[in-house]
Amino acid sequence: MVFNVLTPQRYNNTAKAEMDRMFFTRCAKVGSEALIEFMHHLKDLNSFQIDHTGLRKASQRQLRPMAQAQTAAHIYNQGEGSVYVEHLPWIDFNQYNLPKPIYINLVRDPVERMISWYYYVRNSYRNAIYFRKNPLAPLKPVAWFKKSFNDCVRSGDLECQYIPMTVHDTEGNFKRQSLFFCGHHQDCLPFNSPLAVQMAKRRVDEEYAVVGTWEETNITLTVLEHYVPRYFARATIIYPIYQESLKNRNRNNRKPRVATDVRDMMRRNFTHEYDFYYFCKQRLYTQYIALKHQGLI
């Protein structure tokens, strides 16, 4: 009986979009750079444009209502077939009397995201670019660059403390993956909050066309291709051509090994974030199975 209602139409929020724009509310450290680069290979084939405005902006955890309205208006004012990408939480366009776009995003294992972020901010290439643009910025001490993630967590260093329900952070690290879906309400801010996660789940279920994961690239691209064909038609055909170069996009091959006990310590503080992560993956798999059930793949 369950399979009688397992249809792509039931799980496709693309039909709810009220304009031909796509908003990629890009989570940090989830493989989004690879997806963005891949979309550049698809844009001529599928006749769409990628707006780079958001990619050049400094990241902000949340926006005030006026800034949300301005961002929504900017997306609305782009031509049909436009993709806007920014590290931003979900925005309710209807709240500002604007038509709703297609929403997509990616997620990643919460602890792996934090490990990736930790070494990303210590990357020499990234820092060289940053200090070239900001020559008067204070330099971090050498010990900070050399500090391992294992030592940071085990020593109780404030940079590596992930305390549930906290709002203020010693270091900005994007640990709230659910925030990108929950939105700009103050209830979305407490870290690992069960309320914030439930709000984020509701947004995913009701608003997002696809929330994929680069950990399951082929499944994600298959679902995007069928649920958002306007932008991802023929994605699974084109991807193998660029697969090798995309695999290495923004990858840190020198990232040291993180000990099992450290991962376990962290997971205990990311319980609700893991609940959200698994929810998104289950939804992705359901969308994929629905395609199989209908004989579409």
UniProtKB/TrEMBL annotation:
It is a single-pass type II membrane protein. GO terms for cellular component: Golgi membrane. GO terms for molecular function: sulfotransferase activity. Keywords: Glycoprotein, Golgi apparatus, Membrane, Signal-anchor, Transferase, Transmembrane, Transmembrane helix. Its main location: Golgi. Pfam families: Sulfotransfer_2. It is found in: Golgi apparatus membrane. Belongs to the sulfotransferase 3 family. This is Heparan sulfate 2-O-sulfotransferase pipe. The lineage of its organism: Eukaryota, Metazoa, Ecdysozoa, Arthropoda, Hexapoda. The gene is Dwil\GK28299.
